[in-house]
Amino acid sequence: MTILFLHGWHSTPGGIKPTYLKDHGHEVLNPALPDDDFETAVRTAQAEFDRHHPDVVVGSSRGGAVAMNIQTGSTPLVLLCPAWKHWGTARAVKPGTAILHARADETVPFSDSVELLRNSGLPSESLIEVGTEHRLADPESLAKMAEAVEWAGSIPVSDTRLISTTNRRSSWLKAVLITLVVAYLVVQLTVSGIRFVHDRQVEGQAKQWFTQAQEDAKPTWSEDDAVRWLKEHGIPPYRGEQSGSGGRHLIVDGYEQIEEGGLVTRPASVHMTFLLDLDHKFERVEYDLWPFEPPGRKRR
User: Fold this and answer.
1) What is the pTM of this model?
2) Which domains are delineated in the chain?
């Protein structure tokens, strides 16, 4: 196959990598790219591409940035430690691109290729970790480069279009999923906030009744006085007895729903209790808040 090989900064045509590809039976186009003028390098590479219509474009280091900044249509790219952050304006590559990079690269950080992979929406297998330094001139790296070139050159144009469509659909589905998750979290936080404020308001109302009952109650109060107080405040009274750690008591209590609840808010009822000893002498007032409707009880 015909390969357009774009060399790196301070490199020259006929280096180890293009020679390796040529020795493996490929026709290699390897134009000289000026080091001091990136725009001229891009124009030179574009002219070579337009003239020969290669099957694959390989870009090494700065040559990878050149490859990303020329118009190659559906022709696949193989990028070797691409220095895309240092030259040019391209920040993503087409579907079907293969990227080879050494994690220990001392010139172009491996993380740059990870970022490029993410920017482009490429699958993780598109980034091939190989070699121990920036040049990728060791036997293993050269063999991986040849494999990537042969793989890229074997992909039909229709397949690259299918990959592009699949990636777009995948990105769209991810965006929709993220939007739904964010919307769900926003709704949950909003509901929690409304409930918190509402519950504090309900609790405040119940405490007001309790405070009022404490102020109104007298040591001389009887059960009838407690019944009267509850009725005056719109709370149906009940009489009974209860036993607990403090012993047995006569009680006059009542439940009153102070919140019916709605789509977001919860129902709530206040339970007011006047406790008297067995000699019918008033002792104290208690209250608690019930997060539901008052229970049905037979009035005594």
Assistant:
1) 0.54
2) 2-155 (3.40.50.1820), 195-290 (no CATH)
